[in-house]
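Protocol step 6 of 9: fold each sequence in the batch and record its structure tokens directly after the sequence line. For illustration, a two-sequence batch is reproduced in full.

Sequence one:
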Amino acid sequence: MSQRLMDRTRRTLLVATSALGIAGLGMVAVPFVRSMSPSARARAAGGPVEVDVSKLEVGQMLTVGWRGRPIWILRRDAVMLDSLGTLADQLADPESKVESQQPAYARNAYRSIEPEILVAIGLCTHLGCVPLARLEPGGVSGLGAAWPGGYFCPCHGSKFDLAGRVYKNLPAPTNLVVPPHRYKRRGVIEIGVNAGLT
């Protein structure tokens, strides 16, 4: 056999072997890459959550789960809303200037789309503990006669008002986080989708 024929045969075998190797690598890589995608269950857990708030009574708080976090939905009455305007000098960020703590549509005095409904992630911004709801004002809360109502984290003593704004000089550095949400239809809030998006 001539040298030229042997070189051509080697080249043909090299190309064929390389092509088979690449095809085999592709067949192994596709399932491997697919296995790194989140499962349907994981995608559903991170998806939006609809909550019917039409039957939520004044002063009542509902807790739902979204992305493994507790979401508080509080229906505030006129007295609760009025109390929010009296606390500015006691709060660390009364005007909610830390942008990452709420969407732009909740950067207002009530930290909400509709003044009477607060939607907040129920985790203390200090170490992620779940604060206690101490919604009633005064001594019945166990926090003293001057307590206007809000949330108290017993782990390290952080306090938040009825809009989730943190009090000054306490361990929690920022206000409670307001998650993206919108009113999908009358009385139904969709958590996980920003207002104005469809």
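Sequence two, same batch, same settings:
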Amino acid sequence: MNQPVYRAAVFGATSAIASEFLRALCEDHEAELLLFGRDESRLEATAADLRARGATCTVRTADFLDFEHDWKAELDGPTWDLFLVAHGSLPDQDRSLGEGAAIAREIGVNFTSQAVIAAACAEILDRQGHGRLAVIGSVAGDRGRASNFLYGSAKAGIAAFMAGLQHRFAERQAIHVSLLKPGMTDTPMTADLPKGPLFSPASKVGRLGWKAVRSGKPTAYLPGWWAGVMTVVRSLPSSVLHKTKL
């Protein structure tokens, strides 16, 4: 018997992790995908790759910082199996901290816009009574550290937001809310960073993300060993942490 078509809407579909996530999804399902992104040419390239893997794709450009946008109207129509919120940016922290507008923009991209979209998607899931919502956060949100606390503070915010949604839907067994927490990942967003042994390829992280969402995990470190790393980082006394370059 044929499986029903799996319908997913993806925000930030051109991100390296999201693209690999969707490739893995297409291996498991006949997929109908609605892909949102900021760059039309990159969206079309992502869609072409996924169509070659059997997916049906529709692309739409979006301004994720337009907080007045009616996402519920945009998503009106079919029953959705999955919403994936994957957009974000990695700021030049030293430069951004010198400009209030730059700080606001980075918080807007990495927290506020994700929360606005996740809230709209959660309302749709609540109305239809089932489905999955996944948001890509980061291990950077586990503790403020000198090297990336601007980005990390936004990711800490989205972690708290997603925990609240998980609590809200705790008794709704057909609704699954997942926070994906990648560690250092080799993507275009980190192209300028020196690569070390803690970096993982986007192909691995994306596929692990799909596996976690498919299984309904509330929180997934990607790869899983980051959970141990961040347990150590969170447990360090401030007197010790402040002597490091983390």
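Proceed to step 7 once all outputs are recorded. Observation for sequence two: The chain has a mean pLDDT of 96.
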